[in-house]
Specification:
Elements (H helix, E strand, L loop, with lengths): L4 E8 L6 H17 L4 E3 L11 H7 L7 H13 L2 E10 L5 E8 L5 E6 L5 E3 L5 E3 L11 E5 L2 E5 L8 H9 L2 E5 L6 H19 L2 E4 L3 E3 L5 E3 L3 E3 L5 E4 L6 E8 L1 H9 L2 H4 L17
Parallel strand pairs: 1-2, 2-3, 9-10, 10-11
Antiparallel strand pairs: 1-16, 3-4, 4-5, 6-7, 8-9, 11-14, 12-13, 14-15
């Protein structure tokens, strides 16, 4: 890694449905993050539009190059010469479908890395709440570690956090930090958010940078908030106190990654093994 200290600002949002409204909501908080002197500013999942209704999202999404939210953030990054990670934006793909895409903007305003969400959130929760991201998004298939002045930044989005093998692979490919921008539901966030983030930090000996959506959105979606930064030893370094729009700041000492991995070298200790076959379930024929 070329730098050992990095000041990070997580921007917690309550993103509205339309792109212009989302931009106007996010920009003051991004400026607030810039004013802290942060080197890297991270926004949450679906920061350019947020709605539960799949038709609304598909109807409003546009190509990445035409998205005014993306254009505004690229301009701000270049103006302040800072790195900005758009945790994810909903963009239209060339075949007319949509992708849930992370964009890392460099200090010149250029896009230095892209990542399309691999694991799509198709669930049926106890309270009757249902989500089917596969009705909206085309899943990605390429894991990404972005180069930054502070070392590799593993890109992931929300539901990816439940797949630990992804974070191990990213760490083995050079990630010393993992971005986990999210729009966790209130139910799953209360039960699992902090536990999953701390587990991925401990397993990989990496910093976890988790900017979140928080509060009630268009169409009744309610997200958990509590954006947080977790150290390579699993300590919560900084956290938003609730669901309100906010900026969470911490200075990362990247030497802590080497120290954690030297103390418990789990990445180096991984061994090959044979996976048992799943037993066939008995079938009942009527």
């Amino acid at each position: 890694m070329t730098g050992t200290m990095c000041q990070v600002a997580l921007v917690q949002l309550r993103t509205p449905y339309r792109i212009i409204a989302a931009r106007d909501h996010a920009l003051p908080l991004v400026e607030k993050a810039m004013a802290t002197g942060a080197d890297l500013i991270i926004l949450p999942e679906t920061c350019n539009m947020m709605a539960r209704d799949s038709f609304m999202l598909r109807a409003s999404a546009c190509a990445e190059v035409d998205d005014l939210f993306v254009a505004s953030m690229r301009e701000r990054a270049a103006h302040h010469a800072r790195w900005i990670l758009l945790g994810s934006v909903v963009v239209r793909t060339t075949d007319g479908r949509c992708a849930n895409r992370s964009l890392l903007i460099d200090p010149t305003g250029g896009i230095s890395a892209r990542y399309d969400k691999i694991h799509l959130f198709d669930v049926h929760l106890d309270n009757g709440e249902m989500h089917r991201e596969s009705d909206i998004y085309v899943p990605g298939s390429i894991a990404t570690v972005a180069d930054t002045p502070w070392g590799g930044l593993g890109l992931s989005i929300c539901y990816d956090i439940r797949f630990p093998e992804l974070y191990r692979d990213l760490a083995m490919a050079g990630a010393v930090m993992h971005a986990v921008p999210a729009a966790f539901t209130a139910q799953t966030g209360k039960a699992h958010w902090e536990t999953l983030l701390r587990a991925r930090a401990i397993e990989t000996g990496s910093y976890i940078l988790a900017a979140a959506q928080g509060g009630e959105h268009a169409g009744g979606a309610v997200t958990w908030g509590r954006s947080m930064i977790v150290s390579p030893w699993g300590h919560v370094v900084a956290m938003a106190v609730d669901d309100s729009p906010d900026v969470v700041i911490a200075t990362l000492d990247l030497s802590a990654v080497d120290h954690a991995r030297e103390k418990i070298a789990a990445l180096a200790h991984r061994r090959a093994y044979t996976v048992p076959k799943s037993p066939e379930k008995d079938r009942v024929h009527g």
